Amino acid sequence: MEKGLQWETTWLDLPSGEHKKPEYLAINPVGKVPALIDGRVIVHDSTIINEYLEDTHPVPPLLPRDPAKRARARAFEDYADAYLMPSLFKIFREMRKPPSEQHRGKIAEGEREARQHFAYLERELEGREYFADEFSLGDISFIPPLANFERSGFSIPDDFPNLKAWWQRVKARPSFSASWPEE
Fold it and tell me: Which residues form the domain of 18?
């Protein structure tokens, strides 16, 4: 939405394994989401999809022009995927289960890890509105995990005011509500 592009979304039921069915495996043989079909081009992985869209639709830019800030945006994109998401997934996996089957210890472990990540992100946002000083793919990469964190009934704790303020700025962007599925 930040680039003003139109697309058609197909939602998959991940808990039922819809992403492992032959129809989807024909699109992405490793069965991971997301995937983008752009004419005859199929692109897998959110990072690669975002960079593909940046390359094919460079205006408005979602990676800073300054090489140091560009590297910083990419580093935060990687941090979201490689560090924050695995910790939050511990929570999401349990929250998808009926309450009687949820493992509170695993949820607590995910929450402890998330707090460590939040502390790092809090420090990195000190004196900044966005991770690379301007809204970028580095910020966008945190939207799905943090939106799912909220949808699971959690929120960024109050003792992370920089991160909370950043999250409110991100959620106030028109692209946030326009791209998120209706309840």
Answer: 14-56
The reply to whether 136 and 85 lie within a common domain is: yes
CA atoms within 13 A on the CB side of 110: 22
The length of the chain is 183
Distance in angstroms (rounded) separating the CA atoms of residues 65 and 29: 34
pTM of the model: 0.87
The domain that contains 48 carries what CATH number? 3.40.30.10
pLDDT per residue as tens digits for the range 58-115: 999 999 999 999 999 999 999 999 999 999 999 998 998 899 999 999 999 999 999 9
**Per the omega criterion (within 30 degrees of 0), is the bond before 58 cis?**
no
Given a contact cutoff of 8 angstroms between Cβ atoms, the answer to whether 53 and 45 are in contact is: no
